[in-house]
């Protein structure tokens, strides 16, 4: 495959055309006022975004409130299951920045696995799962922030349905009443990568590893910005406001170079239904349409994204393509993991790169991180746990 000449170098479009966002001309409605109006009518409780917050730009020029702390973290089932360093990196960054947050024990996963794989139950049950989690956050006194891009997109669709369907609201309210839970809608539905965008300057101030020699490509997660796209983060300084800025702006703030590639808009290949019933399609798409194109057009040191399925598909599909001699072999992780590494997090205790399929050690070497020493320290931790001298790793151990 020959490299494709691109009209974009880095994140600055080489064009005279400009896009000026205008909320008055947005093609979709701003649901937030409807959410507040339903709250005033007694249909539900609206949980306001707590202070301090940052107002971030969105696709059509509306401002979105992103809370900095007092956050209730809606974890991802896939992250907890096979990319644990994804979530721990987010928590580690909160602690390094000194922000108050809550890691709940009463959260349920969203139902998007069933929803997007065409095995869903019914509309009210789908919405009730989302609203039960929002109720749990409200009862804790913390504001929900969602780790999973699919949960984020799915919950925004639930919000849209509940705003427009009084009968569905009644059904879901009845379910929550039987559960003994309040019927609560957050003022904003917030993804963790938006929080990272909001704190990117604070992260820059704490970088301890030089990333100026690192080239990254970014895969923007479909379920983050293609579902209910109006409130995803878009920044005029990133691709002229024509692509979501959530990951790219953070990576640039950390000091790395972001390189463009022609298939940036394509899905990672995960696709939910595909990963369940057509896994070879997922592996082929992830490697041939994404990884190989990135390698040939940008040759990155790392691929970064902000959703569970994307990390999974792009990282764990490469072994099959490598067996067939394809041009693959680039580490994949979330931007939260790269940010944690840049700020000095332990590559195995915190970012847990040993869970990843592609070898991350060349990247660590380019970042100036002694992975051999880190691995020896991690092995000592495991020996202490095995001997009973230490029950598990604690935050005191890794901070």
TrEMBL record:
The keyword Oxidoreductase applies. Keywords: Oxidoreductase. This is CCG domain-containing protein. The keyword Oxidoreductase applies. PANTHER family: COB--COM HETERODISULFIDE REDUCTASE SUBUNIT B 1. Residues 217-314 form the Cysteine-rich domain. It comes from Candidatus Hydrogenisulfobacillus filiaventi. Pfam families: CCG (PF02754). GO terms for molecular function: oxidoreductase activity. Residues 1-28 are annotated as: Disordered.
């Amino acid at each position: 495959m020959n490299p494709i000449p691109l009209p974009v170098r880095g994140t600055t479009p080489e064009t005279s055309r400009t896009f000026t966002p205008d909320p008055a001309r947005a093609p979709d409605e701003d649901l937030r006022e409807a959410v507040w109006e339903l709250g005033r009518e007694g249909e539900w409780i609206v949980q306001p975004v707590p202070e301090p917050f940052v107002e971030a730009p969105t696709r059509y020029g509306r401002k979105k409130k992103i809370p900095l702390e007092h956050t209730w973290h809606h974890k991802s089932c896939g992250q907890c299951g096979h990319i644990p360093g994804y979530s721990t990196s987010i928590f580690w960054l909160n602690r390094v920045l000194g922000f108050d947050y809550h890691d709940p024990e009463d959260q349920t996963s969203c139902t998007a696995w069933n929803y997007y794989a065409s095995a869903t139950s019914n509309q009210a049950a789908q919405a009730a799962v989302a609203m039960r989690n929002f109720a749990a956050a409200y009862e804790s006194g913390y504001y929900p922030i969602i780790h999973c891009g699919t949960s984020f997109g799915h919950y925004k669709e639930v919000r849209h349905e509940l705003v427009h369907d009084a009968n569905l609201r009644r059904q879901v309210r009845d379910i929550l009443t039987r559960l003994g839970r309040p019927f609560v809608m957050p003022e904003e539905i917030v993804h963790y990568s938006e929080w990272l965008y909001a704190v990117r300057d604070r992260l820059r101030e704490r970088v301890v590893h030089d990333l100026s020699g690192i080239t990254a490509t970014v895969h923007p997660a479909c379920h983050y910005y293609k579902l209910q796209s109006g409130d995803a983060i878009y920044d005029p300084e990133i691709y002229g406001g024509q692509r979501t800025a959530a990951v790219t702006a953070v990576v640039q703030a950390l000091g790395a170079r972001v390189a463009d590639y022609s298939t940036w808009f394509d899905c990672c290949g995960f696709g939910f239904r595909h990963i369940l019933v057509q896994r070879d399609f997922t592996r082929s798409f992830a490697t041939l349409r994404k990884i190989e194109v990135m390698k040939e057009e940008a040759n990155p040191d790392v691929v970064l994204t902000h959703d569970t399925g994307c990390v999974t598909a792009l990282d764990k599909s490469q072994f099959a393509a490598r067996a067939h001699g394809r041009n693959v072999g680039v580490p994949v992780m979330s931007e939260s993991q790269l940010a944690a590494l840049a700020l000095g997090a332990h590559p195995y205790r915190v970012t847990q790169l040993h869970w990843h399929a592609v070898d991350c050690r060349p990247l660590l070497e380019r970042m100036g991180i002694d992975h051999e020493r880190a691995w020896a320290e991690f092995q000592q931790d495991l020996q202490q746990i095995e001997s009973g001298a230490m029950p598990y790793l604690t935050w005191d151990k890794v901070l």
